[in-house]
Amino acid sequence: MANRITGLATGLDVDELVKTTMKAYQTKIDLQTQKKDVLEIKQKLYRDIISEGKEFYDKYFNLAKSDSLLSSKNYVTTKFDSSDTMVATATGLSGAVKDNYKVNVTQVAETAKKTYSGSELVGDIEIKSNNQSVFIKASELDGKTDREKAALINSKVTSIGLTASVSDFKEGITIETKGTGKSSTFSINIGGSIVDATVNGTTSPEILTAGWSVSDLYSDTASDLMFNVGGKSVIIKASELKDSIKSLQEEIDKLDGTIPEEATKIEQLEKEKSRVINSTINSKLSTVGLKSTLSDDLSNITIESNTSGEKFTFTSGTAVDTHTTGGTVSTFEGKNLHATFSNSKGTVVYDDTNVSPTNKPVLDGVQFNITDVGEAKFVGKTDVTDTKNKIINLVNDYNKLIEKLNKLTLETHDRSYAPLSASQKEEMTEKEIELWNEKVEKGQLSRDSDLKRIVNNLKNAMTSSVIGSTTTLEAIGISPLKNYTTKNGMLEINEDKLTAALESDSEAVMNIFLQKPEDTTGMTESEIKSRTGIMYRMKDILNDEFVSTSKSALINKAGIEGTVSFTQSTLSRQITEYEKKIKQMNSTLSDKEQALYNKYASLETAMNNFNSQAMYLSNFFGGASSW
Known about the structure:
Strand order of the largest sheet: 1-23-3-19-20
């Protein structure tokens, strides 16, 4: 706002007069600002609870997290001490049998591997595994160090289940399978000649465009095509095009074209097939600077260069894949585990007949991790500490979430506290403003239906019995608090009962949380839920309320950062509308104020003129009397 010097001639306090005159309109602006501020407070409260809900979900329902009680390993209470951890360790899994074990290892499972010096990798190379091949031309390795060669080879072989590496402790480049066991194999052909993929058939003259009927490109009699432009080529196999629309064709085959609705669906699917074919062709042609275009009726495809006037050729016939001729082929295979396991019940022997391709066999719910040849003994024991603590932490964090939701819905709002205007804040200290804002925030989500629904759903998920389970939540020491108002839905824990339940039958405890009905045929959704473990019930609720941007009513209402809902949620849109309205009103206020200042400025001018005339007359008549 421009600086104004006013009231010099009239003696009026113009600023105060303008402020008083516009007070009523300023009050209207403040009212709109208060409404916007209230929405922002509600949005903040919603976003805070969404954030806490997401944190709770991530901590206990993300299988990648160590505290996740969706993982059965966190309910294991049978532990094993090894007499020689350099040979083997053991971990109890769900249903692990507590016993003493003895392991004698004569051969560990190994990968198939071979180490080559850089000078041995000469000529063209083909490496084959899992019935797939990769090809490396001699020119790609020329002039490279072993480390650079290993990086190049690794970038190619990783797609077929192999790795290539170098070590500071050993010379050469090691190629090996990712998996262990005798069935893990690979072969390498060194010194042969790579024959690039091509299409045997008829080659066209150089042309600017080429066209095909879409259906002809994937029919049973369709030819493979190779396009050449500017020294580059790409092959499009008819079989690849056919595979790209396989699921669409299967869907079409299930429909009856004599039924009008299904005939319409078939027509739509046929059009989608054309789009998929075109997209598949386009993705390949783009590597050589060509493109394909569908006709308006989606029945034909035209191919041309991205560069105007550039010609290309195509060959129609049968594709011949890249292959190697000549060279020396060597094959390598891994090793199976050879070991004897025994406990009080008997003995299990792993060799090339009773095969364990890995070093992690599981017997009676115990997973052994073999690391070396030798003998190790294991003593089984029960230790419920970790599982008990994880369950206690789950209940405590659940209670914190429920307590906050209850507080937000039960607090009442004192209507005498509204968001402060800018002028009100100027008259208050920072501490007074802070205390006032706390009063304003309190009760803004009172009786909120979404929050109350979440509390009730979580409460039902936790306290409803799990049909088919051999125990109950209360039987293992977890029961609802009797306070049905401020502590509605919260739980209390009897740690002694929980410890006893885990020591007695940890699998039964696990089933309360992780049970899933094996056969849901003919069951209603309610019946399925009644037979589903607590963790899966809660997971669905928390996902729908705090995680899923498409399902969550809170996210739809308040939005979360990093998604489109942040600016497009209901409250965000309402706040934006208020901001626009307030901006318009402030602009109007500014115009009205300026108009008033202009009027008072005119008054000042008139008064100045009057004073000048009065002075002149005074001087004139005063001067005349002196004659």
